[in-house]
Amino acid sequence: MGDSWERHESLSALAQAIIDRRAILFVGAGVSMQVGLPSWQALTEYMADELELDRDLLSKPDVHYQTVAEYYRLRGGNMDLLGHWLRDNWSTCQEQVARSAAHELLVSLDFPIIYTTNYDRNLEAAFEHHGKPYAKITNARDLTEVSEGVTQIIKFHGDLDDPASLVLAESDHFERLSFETPLDVRFRADALGKTVLFIGYSMSDMNIRLLLYRLWQTWHRSGFAEDRPPSFIFMPRGNEVQEAVLRHWGISVLRDETEEPGRALINFLSGLASEVALLDAARKKPFN
């Protein structure tokens, strides 16, 4: 009963922040996989084959796609060609995006700002399909061309249309984790004043864990941690250990116990959309 009530209170707080235009969305790979994009395993196998590595090496727990990409670069692999391979193999299927309930819900929730670590253009395709304008931001120059009232889609790890922008190799990620680029500065400013919802991420992703920790650290050092806007992460399944750590970092976990992660995400977004509609209707209802 307590968990259900706590979840309702958190969902209401998030919905109210969305209504007030004070919520931003941070989207990970789990959302793109809803429309059939391959996992990182496909990219890792491609690089291994190009390098003539034994694929058995990829099953070792200390070998990640970032490390393989770094080795690929060290061996003289053409990173631009790698970016083009990604663009060709991770291209958006317009029909799948058009049928995606998750993407339709994301568009309908009307977040003013969406950050994504995904290279693909599924979010952009969803906005186009549903007739909603957006501005894609990949670099500092794009920040100067944003129009008011248009959803900003900020490609935090680069964009397939610009292979040079992709954060792929291990050193790329280290540079990103320094949090000193213009997009990092922009995100810190946004996150300090707004509620953030993270979806599509695994908590084994050290990049996102460091980002969440840095947000907590910034507020903790400020002396005004109690004034921090609430932030949330959606997880398809509960995990007591992860949730305790995230709570310490000021992140509330919203979850759905549906077995299939894709269905769980749709259930969550649908419930959030319903809560937004309910609160918005109550706000607009005239007093008797």
From TrEMBL:
Residues making up the signal peptide according to the UniProt record: none
CDD domains: SIR2-like
Protein name, as recorded: Sir2 family NAD-dependent protein deacetylase
